[in-house]
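Could you help me review a protein record that somebody else here produced? This is what I was given.
***
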Amino acid sequence: MSREPPPGEDEAPGGGGGGRAGEGGCYLALCARPVHFEKANPVNCVFFDEANKQVFAVRSGGATGVVVKGLEDRNPISFRMEDKGEVKCIKFSLGNKILAVQRTLKSVDFLNFIPDSPQLEYTQECKTKNANILGFCWTSSTEIVFITDQGIEFYQVLPEKRSLKLLKNQSINVNWYMYCPESSVILLSTTVLGNVLQPFYFKSGTMSKLSKFEIELPAAPKSSKLSLSERDIAMATIEGSCKKTHILKLNRTGKFALNVVDNLVVVHHQDTETSVIFDIKLKGEFDGSTTIHQFVLPPRSIQPYQIPVAGPASVTSQSPVPCKLYSSSWIVFQPDIIISASEGYLWSLQVKLEPVVNLLLDKGKLMDFLLQRKECKMVILSVCSQMLSEPERGSLSVIATVFDKLNHEYKKYLEAEQSYTMVVEAGLSRSNPLLKRPVRTQAVIDQSDMYTHVLSVFTEKKEAPHKFTIAVLMEYIRSLNQFQIAVQHYLYELVIKTLVQHNLFYMLHQFLQYHVLSDSKPLACLLLSLESIYPPAHQLSLDMLKRLSTANDEIVEVLLSKHQVLAALRFIRGIGGHDSISARKFLDAAKQAEDDMLFYTIFRFFEQRNQRLRGNPSFTPGEHCEEHVTFFKQVFGEQALMKPTTF
């Protein structure tokens, strides 16, 4: 198929594989929309380009057609080219503008796919005499590396001139090579045994030689021949991993293949037709130099996959055919590609997080696992909801552990955001072009997320005992305080509403008295609204507003904005300012509340004030209350207006 071999063999300590696991709780799946290509056969050769993640189906050396398909490509690329011999390797540059084809051991042919550019092939021979080209890799849209058995040659392609310019070359004996496009690193196998690996890094027209390293062979080789082949090596990028050696304990023997999906190492075992996953970011056993990891979850097969039957509409009503999983015709590419040459399919492998919830019962470990995954937010919020509800209700200590893990991530993001803002505001960002705004990943579960999806829903259900409900809310607030995250007022409001629902006014009083609930204007307004059912709330609210150094008129504005019109009026009367307030402002607020009796009460209050101050209940033109007088007449009738009192 291509130069990548089938899954290799690997001996691991610990004996047998334990038989085939059931499909219940499959946490791996093949993507729903694979790339379908013409099967490999004597006429049709199939190649895979690991950089662009494209499959090339080359018929008759290209003379009867080349079809290029990729997972991200909406439209396949089809073209023909002259049959100049057997195609050994074929790849597009990044961006699909230049095609490179290797047909011989000495040269690579190029063809421009640029609009208005003549489609004439041009050729580049390798510079080193007597060298054979093992393959090539595109490192950008116009830069390519030839790997020969005697070294590497780094070229810039000049499509307008239909020629190549040698940028750099390096002589080194090469057995085989491997390329990781995500990190732009080519790994060369050198020495007779093949276990000394020399990496080269490519970026923006430069080639850097990195430190070589040696792979320890499991046993002393009996003869001086190649002992490490490319089938024994997989190259992939795991975000945030540092320079450490990790050993993955497979506890089985046989044929294995590796993928890296969502920063997890997936190991497929052909004999048992199961896969296991390792997360090297989770704690393992550290012996001073290496970290040893066990698999995170029990072995499971990839989720069964049905291949739709192709053909006319009358035929496609047939049942889909089950795909043979872990087939010997499967070929695995990094990071997450599986290709079945015999069936003509290319899939990306995916991790399903929902089944993991039922397989990883330790909630602390489950959170550690989920917080490292890209699409984790809704699953984490679902786990939080489950642990607060029957039948999976957790203990407060478990709930506290989960909250702390979430808020640890939340705090890390807030600190990174704050540091970035400080640098930008100080004007230092220009001198540091590498400075980037912190990326908000799905692992950042903020207070709004918890309130909307978990805590407000939990309190509304009223399934749990009220003491447990309050304890959960206070545990979340404790965790936020522990990480020095400012608690949003709506969480305090949720606590107060829950306390009021269960008539726990003594507890509310204590929480406020000992400042368990932090002062805020919205909280003070909520307390004012509770005066009718808990009279001390009025004074508690005023005390809070005074501690906040809130101006009296601002307090009135806050109350009116919350439609607490009567509370605002009581407050103004309490401080003796009711003779000078604007009647229109209060009547506007009362009308917006759409409560006729409230409007009547406020209107009557100001009529009585007018009578007391001016000897007449009517409003003066300067008060601009004409529309409210009209509204009052419409609703209650003119006879309801207060008559002037004469003595």
Remarks:
- The first strand starts at residue 8 and ends at 10.
